[in-house]
Amino acid sequence: MFRPKLPTMPQPTGTVTPPAVVEPTTITPGTSTPPATVPAPTRPTVQLTPGTALALVGSGTAIVLVVGAVLVSLLLAVAITGASVAVCALVIRSLANADAKRR
Fold it and tell me: Which residue of 39, 48, 82, 97 lies most exposed, with the fewest beta carbons within 10 A?
């Protein structure tokens, strides 16, 4: 039941062609073929002028500043939320203690 069933190899049917005979060829020394040259890609080259370099630096700086501002604002939001939850916990605890003292 747990033993795998191995398939049996089917026997070839019909006519079987014999393998082709490969005859050796003679090699004549001294005849060399030139190596194939690969054509250069036809992409345009990028000209990096001082203006484009300045634009790249400016855009990179802007991206870093925007990402930094977003991360700082998220951190500030988490800190404010934590502080408000702590204040709420203190108020609830003081209300529960005051109610317990009255009884």
Answer: 39
